[in-house]
Amino acid sequence: MAQLRIALAQTNPVVGDLAGNADRLVEWTGKAHAGGAHLVVFTEMFLTGYPVEDLVLRASFVDASIATLESCARRLADSGYGDLPVVVGYVDRADRVARVGQPKGAPLDAAAVLHRGRVVVRTAKHHLPNYGVFDEYRYFVRGDRLPVFRLHGVDVAVAICEDLWQEGGPVSVAGAAGAGLLVVPNASPYEREKDDVRRDLCARRAREAGCALAYANQVGGQDELVFDGDSLVVGADGALIARAAQFTEELLFADLDLPRGSGEPGESVFDAGDGTVITVERIVLSEEPVSFEPREPVVADRLDDAAEVYGALVLGVRDYVEKNGFRSVILGLSGGIDSALTATIAADAIGADRVHVVLMPSRYSSGHSIADAEELVRRQGLHSRILPIADTVAAFEKEVELTGLAAENLQARVRGMFLMSLSNQHGHLVLTTGNKSELAAGYSTLYGDSAGGFAPIKDVPKTLVWELSRWRNTQSDPPPIPENSITKEPSAELRPDQRDTDSLPPYEVLDRLLDDYVEKDMGRDALIAAGHDPELVLRIIRLVDFAEYKRRQYPPGPKISPKNFGRDRRLPITNKWREMPS
Predict the structure, then answer these.
(1) Of 34, 36, 466, 470, which residue has the fewest beta carbons closer than 10 angstroms?
(2) Residue 176: its pLDDT value, please?
(3) What is the mean pLDDT of the chain?
(4) CA 340, 380, 377 angle in degrees (round to 5)?
(5) Quick one: three-class SS letters along 351-379?
(6) What is the model's pLDDT at position 428?
(7) pLDDT digits (tens, 9 = 90+) for 13-22
(8) Strand partners, 2
(9) Cα–Cα distance between 309 and 494 in angstroms, integer?
């Protein structure tokens, strides 16, 4: 057996910031070097950030990625870290000579090993995901090589993210090639309870390959996606060795006892078990063994469900604000639970001093709405101002006669206009406060309460809004959200004595139905068979289908569910299909 100390760099790259990401690479490699690591593994497409989407269709961007990679190899050597091999993700391009079925110079989701000032080996993702939020068949061509490099006598193989999630391919070839360690750079987005799935997957793949497995995952927010980290190392038997925390940058060390490699340098072809073949490229970086006193591995505690979801929302807001250069945020604070939770998430994300709220009472606003909003401001120390909307609404109504829903929507649009005007004047990012249940049913006003630049609870059903608010109130004293905001009956307060239940079923009923229709894509008959009321099924289906045009114009927000409104769920606006009775 041979020893090896590895370091997984669970870091937060910025899409398109190749220079900044390169600086992070050198900085974090320095930390790994100081910690005595023999190998450091960064995440998928670290140098470019992930996902870069249509940026990869620009030759200039791919050229810059390749040049940055080569520059990093030289910088690491110049910084005194040349003897420490670094595995890092970037964007490459296929051979300039076209292969059968592959376009000439097509982009690759690639990884490389940097050592002693050179790029010593390159590889590319073999399995390209094309589901959910992933569109990688649009951008990349499949890789067909598996590097195996010998480091201090241990054979180390490199696969990339989706290669771990699919049967066959690099994982099976790594086992057949006799690798002692499989390292996997990842950019795996967060979803509720995905950490358990991820850990079980790593354990299963390690047992299949017969080698230890190191899973390095990105952390941070990128538009709608949140990456939770949760990097981990498992042994060849699938047993957990080390695990990083969620939603925070961390350098995870693991001291491993691994079998010595025996294969000869060169190339050999293996059946990948998925209808393709993979060429294994073996190189030797070092044969001499190392010896050290092992350290106790770190296994971070797992967050409970509410803490995990809340952490994802906070990180998503923080990174959207910071990476896009906003100094502050602004939102309408009604005294209700949605805006209360949104304000609290924002304060936790960027600090209360950067959160501005506007109280915009109308002729229908209840006294407790203003009182509850003011109490939240006092508890959290937010910047606030009151802008009554009654006179502005009256000025509109003097020029055009509006009744019913049009009159209700006018109030929401006046509020949206005030917020967007203050955003323009002061440079605030407007946070939209609608939840997933309302967005699904179309229970929002286009260019009114849907106006804004980012929607923190867009993927949070109403019942979960209450759950998160109660959880957050247990985490500090005094609780940040007034109890009355949580317990009072929801109302848009756009007409006298209005309640959400005037238009919608109780949220406990609605959310269960929406979960089946939106998340699980169940049709009418399946929904009724699942126990939902037939009349309600038809009513809610109509509401959801009709509101597609609203959702298409809604701001982005952090994805926490398996199917969010945005990158996950893509339905035509112009659409005559309806789940009608048989």
Answers:
(1) 34
(2) 87
(3) 91
(4) 65
(5) CHHHEEEEECCCCCCCHHHHHHHHHHHHH
(6) 97
(7) 999 999 999 9
(8) 258
(9) 31
How many Å apart are CA 447 and CA 414, to the nearest integer? Answer: 9
Q: In angstroms, rounded to a whole number, what is the distance separating the alpha carbons of residues 433 and 430?
A: 10
Beta bridge partners of 93: 107
Tokens read off for 127: 């399995």
Instruction: State both tokens at 78.
Output: 């110049």
Q: What's the one-letter identity of residue 398?
A: K
| pLDDT confidence band for 403 (50 / 70 / 90) | confident
Q: What is the largest CA-CA distance in the chain?
A: 86
Condensed to tens digits (0 to 9), the pLDDT of residues 353-397 reads 999 999 998 876 666 788 999 999 999 999 999 999 899 989 998
Question: Is-above-0.70 flag for pTM?
Answer: yes
Token pair, residue 89, equals 């993700």
Three-state DSSP at 382 gives coil
- Segment holding 138, helix H or strand E: helix 136-139
Q: What percent helix, strand, coil does the chain show, rounded to 5?
A: 40, 20, 40
Q: Which region among 90-94, 135-139, 297-301, 506-510 has the lowest average model confidence (pLDDT)?
A: 135-139
Can you say whether residue 132 is alpha, beta or left, with left for phi > 0 and alpha for psi between -120 and 50 degrees?
A: left
**Residue 426: how many CB atoms within 10 A of its CB?**
11
DSSP letter for 557, please. Answer: -
- Specify the pLDDT at position 97: 42
Q: Any idea which residues carry the catalytic annotation? A: 44, 125, 161
The tokens for 249 are 């940058």
Do the strands 232-234 and 145-151 form a parallel or antiparallel pair, or are they unpaired? unpaired
Name the DSSP class of 500: G
Contacts of residue 115, defined as CB under 8 A and 6 or more positions apart, other chains included, come to: 73, 82, 83, 85, 86, 285
Where do we find the tokens 């867009």?
458
